[in-house]
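Example record

The entry below shows one chain as it appears in the dataset: sequence first, then structure tokens.
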Amino acid sequence: MQKIVTLTRHIIEEQRKHPTATGEFTNLINDLAFAIKLISYNTNKAGLLDVLGEAGTTNVQGEKVKKLDVFAHETMFRALDHGGHLCVMGSEEEEKPIAIPSQFPIGKYVILFDPLDGSSNIEANVSVGTIFSIYRRVTPDGTPGTLEDLLQPGSEQICAGYVVYGSSTMLVYTTGNGVHGFTLDPSYGEFVLSHPDIKIPKKGKIYSVNESNFDYWDQSIKNYVHYIKQIDPDSGRPMNSRYIGSMVSDFHRNLLYGGIFLYPASKRAPRGKLRLAYEANPMAFIIEQAGGRASDGHNRIMDIVPTELHQRTPLFIGSEEDVNMVEEFIRGERP
């Protein structure tokens, strides 16, 4: 019989490599996996359940909130608030840190999450996702967590992952020992290891960017995009343009096939558009563990020390050689 490795089994086997492990982290991931299964079910049934359309509010980003955004946010919170593993949470949908309810014990971990990335596409039946990032707290144990626990550089992450709700539901995560992908088997409701030790190619053929912003970019970014679209078989150009508009989906494809996802700063978004804590940092941890790179054009993403919970950043992420090249354009080393 072929060995079936579930997400829980994989985490337990990793836990055994650390004699001092208590199992608390394993329980936290199990709670997270439960929330993801609920979100997956409702996403796949979106056309049949009352979860499509707008909720009639806007979030801290000024974006219209979808009903499924609200459901995903509340599901994540309710699945994680009572286990005694967390001291505080941060959500892309909430302006301030989310406290653990007073009736529940306080733990030593911190989680930040984007409950439903790409939700504006849900009514078009386009793949959406969930992104999460876990840290150890930096404030004293046993006390409620604070903003300080949430404002840590990405280099301090102990776990990061994302989920793609597509033709199948797939969870990809890292704890600093490689990147592993698990596909949800609906026949028995378990995440099963389907993509062990994912590695991104050093050089890719795909670039993902919203080119409708072209006229708002700095000249260096315009030059880069123009360069990779030119015909030059010796250098593997032109690269293929693939842009879904759901970061999780674009990132996932590039992780498997190689390439670069870029969301540069622009005249309309001088600080960039993507959130450092909820999108850039977790994806940067994953891409580096897979052999790629993540940069804001000048600095390693995970070296940036955040000063705001919803801080934005430019992002260039993907295959190592592709990220190196766009940085060369930004530095003016290429015409």
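Notes for this example: The chain is about 30% helix and 25% strand. The chain has a mean pLDDT of 92.
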